[in-house]
Design a protein that fits this description.
The protein is an alpha/beta fold. It has four helices and eight strands. It has a six-stranded mixed sheet, with helices on both faces. Strands 7-8 form a two-stranded antiparallel ribbon.
């Protein structure tokens, strides 16, 4: 079986990328022998529409499944329209994710698990600044607080969804770390 995994680097021991549309690499992996071919993401530096372009690139490779940490709604729609099952990777390496997939431990997603444009910073480009955080993380901070309750001493307490919010923030942070590692690796390869 051939699967494609988003990756921060060009080999199977690289961390799974925390983002789909701007993953530095897609690794095409044979689940039988774990041989892999690194494919540079043609949408990595695209200004907008990276998720859609990356999804179209993946569709052309005709994998049996796709493994990534996060999928935006536009990319997810393209992938599912192309009948590519999308699985959510945990933390760890590409190898660990493929092995977990082979054991049936990864969850197939029924919908996107990241906000639109979650891989793009609000100001200054991909991860380049604005409010920092590369456009990830802050989306959960400004959510509607209508479900909050106030305690007797005036502190706000979430009445529901706190675990989901924290899990989403953790996924976003893992994505940021994977992106930073990939950038460091690229700079190291260039001798900077």
């Amino acid at each position: 079986m051939k699967v494609i995994v988003t990756s921060a680097g060009p080999d199977i021991e690289s961390p799974v990328s925390g983002v789909f549309g701007r993953a530095p690499y897609f690794l095409e992996v044979d689940t039988e022998d774990l041989s892999c071919s690194p494919l540079k993401n043609p949408a990595l530096e695209q200004g907008s529409g990276a998720g859609i372009e990356a999804a179209q690139f993946v569709l052309k490779r005709k994998p049996d499944a796709l493994i990534s940490s996060n999928y935006g709604p536009n990319a997810f729609q393209v992938l599912t329209a192309g009948s590519i099952p999308c699985y959510e990777a945990g933390t760890g390496t590409v190898r660990e994710s493929v092995e977990a997939f082979s054991r049936g431990e990864l969850e197939a997603l029924g919908s996107a698990n990241a906000a639109s444009h979650s891989g793009v910073a609000g100001g200054g480009g991909r991860g380049g600044g604005g409010r920092g955080g590369g456009g990830r993380g802050s989306r959960n901070m400004d959510r509607d607080r209508s479900n909050d309750q106030t305690t007797g001493n005036g502190d706000r307490v979430k009445s529901g969804g706190q675990l989901e919010e924290l899990s989403a923030r953790l996924r976003d942070l893992r994505g940021q770390i994977a992106d930073i590692v990939a950038q460091i690796d690229r700079l190291t390869e260039q001798g900077q």
